[in-house]
């Protein structure tokens, strides 16, 4: 489980600055795009938290 976590951290953490820059450029410099990016990341992190074990 730790290997998957670490690999995901490297892959997604490495692309985050590129995604943030792309979102800001796409929105014309508006900060709402960064807020949407953070909200999407938070939402995707909460999905496994609701999974029944």
From TrEMBL:
Protein name stated in the entry: MFS transporter
Transmembrane segments: 7-26
Keyword field: Membrane, Transmembrane, Transmembrane helix
Keyword Transmembrane attached: yes
Source organism (scientific name): Streptomyces javensis
């Amino acid at each position: 489980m730790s290997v998957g976590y670490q690999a995901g951290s490297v892959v997604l953490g490495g692309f985050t600055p590129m995604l943030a820059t792309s979102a800001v450029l796409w929105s014309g410099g508006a900060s709402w795009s960064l807020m949407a990016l953070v909200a999407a990341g938070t939402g995707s992190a909460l999905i496994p938290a609701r999974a029944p074990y």
